[in-house]
Design goal:
There is one protein chain. This protein is mainly alpha-helical. Helix content is 77%, strand content 0%. The protein starts with a helix and ends in a 9-residue tail after the last helix. The radius of gyration is 16 Å and the shape is elongated.
C-alpha cells in the first residue's frame, strides 16, 4: 500500500518541479529579451500565473500522500 503512495507522490513532485523550472526559464527569457532586444514575450505574466497555480495544486497531493505539512512563513 505504501508503494503506490510513494510512486504517485514522486510523480506529482516531478511534475511540480517541471512547472517550477518552466516558470524560472520563462522569467529569465522574458527579462533577457526585454533588457537586450526590447522585445518582451507576450502573455508571460499569465502563463507564469497558471504555472504557479499548477505547481501548488500538483505539489499539494504529494505532501498529503507523504503525511507531511506545508508551512508558510509570513
Amino acid at each position: 500500500m505504501q508503494r503506490w503512495r510513494y510512486a504517485i507522490s514522486l510523480m506529482c513532485g516531478l511534475i511540480a518541479a517541471l512547472f517550477l523550472a518552466a516558470m524560472m526559464l520563462l522569467t529569465v527569457a522574458d527579462v533577457t529579451l526585454r533588457a537586450f532586444f526590447n522585445t518582451p514575450l507576450r502573455g508571460t505574466f499569465e502563463v507564469i500565473e497558471l504555472l504557479l497555480a499548477g505547481t501548488f495544486f500538483i505539489a499539494l497531493p504529494a505532501v498529503f500522500l507523504r503525511d507531511e505539512h506545508i508551512v508558510v512563513d509570513v
